[in-house]
Design brief:
CATH topology of the largest domain: Rossmann fold
Strand content: 5-15%
Helix content: 40-55%
Largest sheet: 7 strands, parallel
Shape: globular
CATH class of the largest domain: Alpha Beta
Distance between the termini: 41 Å
């Protein structure tokens, strides 16, 4: 590894003028190489600027093993495949075979596209134009991945009718099977040395293996998890159960489509699917109308069923009725059999969610916009991951910029069931004490005090005036975000962007391309967002990001720790908030030339005993309580000041 990452090594020679030796990168590469060579697990906290991608990719290639790289997001998958892999193939491993695997809904279904071309089901000129462009693209694309369709909006309803979801796939019986983009993806994966997936696909595959339903990924011998701090949440989703009103709507829609396709759409059958729609709406309308996530304990489920038994039974019977009608058909096309199997699976899931009482699950429901979701989530996934992942494979690498609390890995290890592992916290690549100033105001009311919001608004206005916009204002809830936005919007002349007014990707692009912009946002902007340079010079966090204690999953995990005689606040709630704050503050310093101010308006970090843990877990920022010092720091960091200093220097 020293010959590759060390001074004068392979990387420096390959990236003439664009590479400098980083001790942390070499240290990480050696730790990953050691894990592959000696077949053990490793957990590595590597801050921004370490160059961790190459530090795990090169040892993975050198291992000669088939390695799965699992990332938190599809965008990081794209970055690995389009930027890092070509570099490695060009300079290091020309024979390297790499495959990107994503969920089925990311790919075009040729059979659906051809069927749609023969039927007048397009809605409006916009859809007609989009469909024409998709058909043209389908003749040229090698992957069929919708990420290539830059003109298609994230929430395209057209795409949901032509994607390759498993629910409507007929597999090898499909006339397009040999040309299918999913068939090609799986073939590339079988031949690959490296397989790049995201956490969602990885844990979907692991959950399938658990239930002996086959698998999505081909055989592999080692895994690297990038952004490993997200593993618990994603694993919890896939080892649980969830159903929603959308599932019933999609089932009815796909049943209608399958009947049209197979010419089985008799009035009787079409009435069956319409009945599913009507009874689904009636059933889900019985849930309380307020948005939010709520507990759905055994007692609450029994009470709900007692009050809404007729609607529940009618919904179940509407599914059974469709299944019976399909079973009675003389001709039983595969498309209809698949719909019937889905209907049966949905009934099983519905029964589990209402009638089971598994001790390790927390039951809850959520109303979000037009959706109602019912779920059962594992309270503790550590035992599942211990058995299914860490004991089943001999080499698992976990890395992220945010894995330690107070310099220790204990929290993440306990949450994930990681017992035997080599740990390493890598030295930071940035000079945080010079590049970042942490502002902690002293005269703020407690966050629970009614006077907090008006005083927070004053602080935000003053900070944004000093930074000339160019800031993220990050909040722990939509209610707080909207409240503070309304309080400051008429007091500022900068372009203000508000989460929820446009898709996340659109807001981020607007922020990057709008001078002096300010973005007000919640949790989805706390991580995975990269805005290097002067465009982002200030990150303001309103309060310590403790999870909402009334959230059913949080409450269940707290209760489980209490019942085990442990301290949930110290062992779970504080460490979780520490990692979230590290993620939020991590938006600011993304390169060695970045400078800026981090502001936390929550005085609990200074007043409460646990505040010390937060401060010990953060990088060594220079700290201040003085707004005047903030002004001087930002003035020295401003683009105008840098241009002047550069001119004076020569």
């Amino acid at each position: 590894m020293a010959a590759i990452f060390g001074p004068g090594g392979f990387l420096e020679k390959s990236m003439i003028g664009g590479y400098e030796h980083r001790p942390g990168q070499l240290q990480m590469a050696e730790a990953v190489h050691d894990a592959f060579e000696n077949h053990h697990h490793a957990i590595l906290e590597a801050g921004t600027g370490t160059g961790k991608t190459l530090a795990y990719l090169l040892p993975a290639i050198c291992s000669g093993r088939r390695v799965v790289i699992s990332t938190a997001t599809k965008s990081l998958q794209e970055q690995l495949y389009q930027k890092d892999v070509p570099f490695l193939q060009r300079h290091f491993a020309p024979q390297l075979k790499v495959a990107v695997m994503k969920g089925r809904s990311n790919f075009l279904c040729l059979a659906k596209m051809h069927a749609m071309a023969d039927q007048p089901v397009l809605r409006g000129m916009e859809e007609v134009d989009a469909f024409r462009q998709i058909k043209d693209w389908a003749r040229l694309t090698e992957t069929g991945d919708r990420a290539e369709l830059t003109f298609l909006p994230d929430d395209s309803e057209l795409w949901t009718r032509i994607d390759a979801r498993r629910d409507t796939c007929t597999g090898q019986k499909c006339p397009e099977f040999q040309q299918c983009f999913l068939t090609a993806m799986h073939q590339r994966a079988k031949d690959a040395d490296l397989i790049i997936v995201n956490h969602h696909l990885f844990f979907a595959d692991l959950a399938l293996k658990k239930d002996d339903f086959g698998s999505i990924l081909p055989e592999y011998s080692a895994v690297v998890f990038d952004e490993a701090h997200e593993m618990e949440d994603v694993a919890s989703d896939y080892f649980g159960q969830q159903i929603s009103n959308f599932r019933f709507e999609e089932l009815a829609r796909d049943a209608d489509h399958a009947m049209r396709l197979t010419h089985q759409g008799t009035p009787t059958l079409l009435r069956r699917t319409q009945r599913i729609r009507e009874r689904s709406r009636s059933f889900f309308d019985a849930f309380p109308p307020r948005d939010g996530r709520f507990s759905f304990s055994r007692h609450e489920r029994e009470a709900f069923l007692e009050q809404n038994r007729e609607a529940y039974d009618a919904l179940v019977n509407s599914l059974k009725g469709m299944e019976t009608e399909f079973a009675a058909l003389t001709q039983k096309p595969e498309e209809l059999l698949r719909v019937a199997r889905r209907s049966f699976e949905i009934r099983q899931e519905l029964a589990f969610l209402f009638e089971s009482n598994e001790k390790n699950y927390v039951y809850w429901f959520e109303r979000r916009n037009k959706g109602v979701f019912l779920a059962a989530t594992p309270i503790d996934v550590s035992q599942i991951l211990r058995e299914r992942l860490f004991e089943a494979f001999d080499t698992i690498i976990l890395t992220s910029a945010t894995l330690t609390v107070g310099g220790r890995f204990e929290f993440i290890r306990q949450r994930l069931g990681l017992d035997h592992v080599k740990e390493s916290g890598l030295p930071p690549e940035f000079h945080y004490e010079e590049q970042a100033l942490l502002y902690l105001p002293q005269k703020m009311p407690d966050v629970r005090d009614p006077g907090f919001a008006p005083k927070a608004a004053d602080e935000i206005v003053e900070l944004l005036e000093l930074s000339q916009g160019r800031a993220f204002c990050l909040f722990t809830s939509y209610a707080q975000m909207n409240d503070l936005f309304e309080r400051v919007r008429d007091r500022l002349d900068f372009p203000l962007l508000l989460q929820g007014t446009a898709p996340r990707s659109v807001l981020l692009e607007r922020f990057k391309n709008t001078a002096n912009a300010v973005l007000f946002a919640t949790s989805s902007f706390w991580q995975g967002v990269d805005v290097p340079g002067d465009q982002l010079s200030c990150v303001i966090v309103d309060r310590l990001p403790f999870a909402v204690p009334s959230d059913p999953i949080v409450a269940a995990r707290v209760r489980a720790l209490q019942e085990d005689g442990r301290n949930p606040f110290a062992e779970f709630q504080v460490p979780q908030a520490v990692l979230a704050l590290k993620q939020g503050f991590g938006r600011l310093i993304r390169s060695k030339t970045d400078r800026g101010v981090l502001a936390l308006l929550d005085t609990r970090i200074q007043r409460m005993p646990y505040g010390k843990i937060f401060l010990e877990s953060l990088p060594r920022y220079h700290r201040t309580h003085d707004l005047a010092e903030v002004g001087r720091f930002l003035a020295a960091a401003s683009p105008a000041h840098r241009r002047k200093a550069f001119k004076e220097a020569g």
